[in-house]
Amino acid sequence: MGELSSKTPDQVLDVLGRVCPYPLVLSKKALEKMSSGQLLKVLCDAPASAEDSLPKWAEKQGYKFESVKLPGDTWDIYIQKS
């Protein structure tokens, strides 16, 4: 387990079944409402979002990011607001 995935998230966002750009858009909205230091866990099954748009956006924002690939092409994505 990584640094972020070992913590209890402050909020869980389920975007399973949603395709790009919805996982990114909904994650942005959720993080806007969160305080600095809080952790968002995103349940995602869209490869383009999990492997491309979400990590790039989080890096650009300066947020900590961790992705855990699960069996069945789903991801648990952890984003910590800075």
What does this protein structure show overall?
With 82 residues, this protein is α+β, with helices and mostly antiparallel strands. The protein has a single domain (11-80), classed as TusA-like domain (Translation Initiation Factor IF3, 2-Layer Sandwich). It has two helices and four strands, in the order βαβαββ. The two termini are 21 Å apart.
Name of the CATH superfamily: TusA-like domain
**Order of helices and strands, N to C?**
EHEHEE
User: What would you say the CATH architecture is?
Assistant: 2-Layer Sandwich
Sheet with the most strands: spatial strand order: 1-2-4-3
**Major sheet, described briefly?**
4 strands, mixed
Helix content, binned percent: 25-40%
Main structural class? alpha+beta
* Terminal Cα span: 21 Å
State the CATH class.
Alpha Beta
Radius of gyration of CA atoms, rounded to a whole number? 11 Å
Query: Beta-sheet strand percentage?
Result: 25-35%
What does the overall shape look like? globular
